[in-house]
């Protein structure tokens, strides 16, 4: 067959030369590889600008003597690791550090237990009650923190608070005019943890309920046929299947509770003894803003970041394994 006959046959059948086919496949493969990165690039750039620069600036400041004078243009002096030495040799830092770890473990643990319990409960409620409960949770979660804290301060007011009234009405006269926020740091942290748990449970409950609601019904039906009780379904089937969701929300809760600031600071202003009720978040604020020692405050912030990474390292490794990165 002649070449002219071959070309005419290809034109008639619409066939492309063999050399063009691999090129077309390469273009399609390149497009599939480039498109996801092209879509992610703008958001990645925004994150780097919004978070990357402040993080790098904070890391640099943690190795400098940076105070009020540097805020007005005086060059900062290099401090090396002296800011970190100052922190790590300060007994008060270790006191705040221990309180922060215990407070975070308490609040995050109780929040997760209550949140999972409420999510499982919503599965067993009828539609009307479930909608009402969901709406209530959303309202609680959406309430501004300062507005919620104002209500809590009214509840624990020593003279006219509802909490003292209820306790004294059942015969506990020792709670007459009892100062929950200024009397002892343990009662302060009890109220603070109640405020944080109350505000955190809605998001945990809604997230876990959404995951539970997406479970395939065939699995539960098969377990019922095998004689599994409701409790066994929850413990051995439902919760293990949504373990990644629980792990994610648990890690986020640890991060939020470890660096909690607003609730502690506002309650301190309402009567708490700051020196005894400081956690890492308020300690950084007082060191940097109140005392003007931004170098030490930046070093404290880097220590908090390192602690957060240590506490969440197990979940990060799980993410890497699921993404095929390790």
TrEMBL record:
It is a multi-pass membrane protein. GO terms for biological process: transmembrane transport. Residues 1-20 have a biased composition (Low complexity). Keywords: Cell membrane, Membrane, Transmembrane, Transmembrane helix, Transport. Residues 97-315 form the ABC transmembrane type-1 domain. InterPro entries: MetI-like (IPR000515), MetI-like_sf (IPR035906), UgpAE/MalFG_permease (IPR050809). The chain crosses the membrane at residues 34-56, 100-123, 135-155, 185-213, 234-256, 294-316. GO terms for cellular component: plasma membrane. It comes from the Bacteria. Residues 1-22 are annotated as: Disordered. PANTHER family: BLL4140 PROTEIN (PTHR43227), DIACETYLCHITOBIOSE UPTAKE SYSTEM PERMEASE PROTEIN DASB (PTHR43227:SF8). This is Sugar ABC transporter permease. It comes from Tessaracoccus defluvii.
């Amino acid at each position: 067959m002649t070449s002219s006959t071959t070309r005419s046959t290809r034109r008639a059948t619409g066939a492309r030369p063999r050399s063009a086919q691999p090129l077309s496949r390469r273009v399609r493969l390149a497009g599939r590889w480039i498109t996801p990165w092209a879509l992610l690039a703008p958001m990645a750039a925004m994150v780097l600008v919004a978070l990357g620069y402040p993080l790098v600036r904070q890391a640099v400041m943690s190795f400098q003597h940076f105070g009020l004078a540097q805020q007005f243009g005086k060059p900062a002096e290099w401090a090396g690791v002296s800011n970190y030495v100052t922190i790590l040799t300060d007994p008060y830092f270790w006191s705040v550090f221990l309180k922060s770890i215990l407070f975070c473990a308490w609040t995050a643990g109780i929040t997760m237990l209550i949140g999972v319990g409420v999510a499982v409960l919503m599965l067993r409620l009828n539609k009307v009650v479930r909608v009402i409960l969901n709406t209530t949770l959303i309202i609680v979660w959406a309430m501004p923190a300062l507005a919620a804290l104002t209500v809590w301060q009214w509840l624990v007011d020593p003279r006219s608070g509802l909490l003292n009234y209820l306790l004294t009405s059942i015969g506990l006269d020792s709670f007459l005019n009892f100062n929950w926020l200024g009397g002892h740091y343990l009662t302060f942290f009890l109220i603070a943890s109640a405020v944080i748990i109350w505000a955190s449970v809605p998001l945990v409950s809604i997230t876990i309920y959404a995951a539970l609601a997406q479970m395939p019904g065939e699995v539960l039906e098969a377990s019922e046929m095998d004689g599994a009780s409701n409790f066994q379904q929850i413990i051995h089937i439902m919760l293990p299947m949504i373990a990644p969701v629980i792990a994610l929300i648990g890690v986020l809760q640890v991060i939020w509770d470890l660096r909690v600031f607003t609730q502690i600071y506002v309650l301190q202003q309402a009567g708490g003894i700051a020196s005894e009720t400081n956690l890492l978040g308020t300690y950084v604020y007082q060191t940097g803003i109140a005392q003007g020692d931004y170098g030490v405050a930046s070093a404290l912030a880097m220590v908090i970041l390192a602690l957060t990474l240590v506490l969440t390292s197990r979940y990060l490794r799980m993410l890497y394994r699921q993404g095929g990165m390790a």
